[in-house]
Amino acid sequence: MKSKKLIELLQKEDPTGETEVCVGGEDIYFLESKPGYWDGVYQVLERNWDSEYYNVTGAQYRSDGTKIVIRTLSIEDALYNNPDLPVTVIDNFTDKKMQKKVDEWRSNAKNDKEEFEKQALQEFTYKVLSKIKEGWKVVQPNDQKIGKYNVMWYIKDPLKFDGRAYKETDNQKHLCQGECMAILKSGFFTTEVIDNLIHWKLVF
Questions:
Q1: How many other CB atoms sit within 10 Å of the CB of residue 175?
Q2: How far apart are CA 120 and CA 115, in angstroms?
Q3: What is the mean pLDDT of the chain?
Q4: Contact status, residue 47 vs residue 29, Cβ threshold 8 Å
Q5: Is 202 within 8 Å of 132 (Cβ atoms)?
Q6: 37 is in which domain, residue-wise?
Q7: Does any domain span residue 113?
Q8: What is the largest CA-CA distance in the chain?
Q9: Percent of the chain scored above 90 by pLDDT?
Q10: In the 8-state DSSP scheme, what is residue 161?
Q11: Which residues contact 52 (CB under 8 A, 6 or more apart)?
Q12: In a domain, 100, yes or no
């Protein structure tokens, strides 16, 4: 369906523009234009718009031109993104059933998030420890707040460290966010200020 036809039909159904629109019961999250070949071919139904009844007269699989993709987001998926998301059930018929579902989704999302973070922390901590074993030191400029991501570096020689340059060299490499998380949350590291650098050192 062409976008102009969709707009026409929406305005016909709701001249005020105040009615909620859903796709398969889910809210529309965003729209985006993509090449026709992106993420596989798309389907087009040929219509006879003058027909009062079934109006499909043909169909096409296409990969040319541009298509507008409508992306939905379910409440279940939204809860996985944010398990503390406020959810209100407004339904006189299924409120108890849906509230039970929401509580179940929220509980599952929290448990999965905790398990994922625990596993990620273990994996990134192992990666940081491996780099330290290879002879790298973990530092950050002492004018940067402790706990701030993206200011931590692996370095070989502190005397050659250039904290002003974002570019990585043979002597210095940025920690990714997961590695920073391992430094801050694993409990394996403490800090020591040496000259103009904060050194993150193992507590054992």
A1: 25
A2: 9
A3: 92
A4: no
A5: yes
A6: 1-73
A7: no
A8: 81
A9: 76
A10: -
A11: none
A12: no
DSSP 8-class letter at 176 = P
Of 30, 54, 73, the domain-final residue: 73
CA distance 110 to 37: 37
Q: What is the pLDDT of residues 36-53, one digit of tens each?
A: 999 999 999 999 999 989
8 Å CB contact between 74 and 32: no
108 sits in which H/E element:
helix 95-133
**Would you list the DSSP string of 45-103?**
EEE-TT-SS--EEEEEEE-SSEEEEEEEE-HHHHHHH-TT-------TTTHHHHHHHHH
The residues, ordered by sequence, that sit 6+ positions from 68 with a Cβ below 8 Å of its Cβ are 3, 31, 32, 33, 34
SS3 123: helix
Instruction: Say which amino acid occupies 74.
Output: S
Contact present, 173 and 161 (Cβ < 8 Å): no
Based on the structure, what is the number of domains in the chain? 2
Q: Rounded to two decimals, what is the model's pTM?
A: 0.69
